[in-house]
Here is the input.
Amino acid sequence: MADVDFHFDVMCPWAYQTSKWIREARMVRDITVHWRFFSLEEVNREEGKKHPWEREWSYGWSMLRVAALLRRESDGDDVVDRFYQVAGCMLHERGEKVHTPDGVGEVLRQIGRDGGLVRQALSDVTTHDDVRADHERVLALGGYGVPTLVIDGIMTLFGPVITPAPVGEAAGRLWDAVAAWAEFPHLYEIRRPKVETDWRHIETSFGPYLNARDWQTIQTPVA
Here is the structure.
């Protein structure tokens, strides 16, 4: 059995595809997933700019604060799983702007929760602490982006970075590859170069997200 902390930022299209994969993989392999937070806004923050917790509303960070409030419930991992699954689908597959208070409220309603939880999460300053604790923990383990997996509390891996997410037994075989990688603590990187056809594939896959977002990344639009 594998115990996996899956660090995500709702706004990341790569993390969303990886989350779809690990949900598939856990149906065909013995994996327990715990949903943990990470802030791309914080790691990409320019010097002199406000931290996300210093803003009244910050796209990904504020969504994670709502997820943090949900995670305090007895079925915390399950409800965060549902929250992320619905929010990710709305943003990354349907191109809907979930990164607003009204958008997050609609996510909550779709999982059967009161949209008023958005206001409750934002008025509770300790939700900042919950998000920062997850974020800083994975940074201390060497994490630098999402998707990041922490396997059995000892092995930190970035990825797998894939689109579209494999399903069924294919998802299980990808998990087998990830688990095999974890056997080698000093195997640091294997990377497939991207050519023009890859970038076209990625742009098509991430089209809804690119249309919905209200910002530019510090990287290329689909990197």
Observations:
- The domain at 2-212 is CATH 3.40.30.10 (Glutaredoxin).
- The chain has ten helices and four strands.
- The chain has a mean pLDDT of 94.
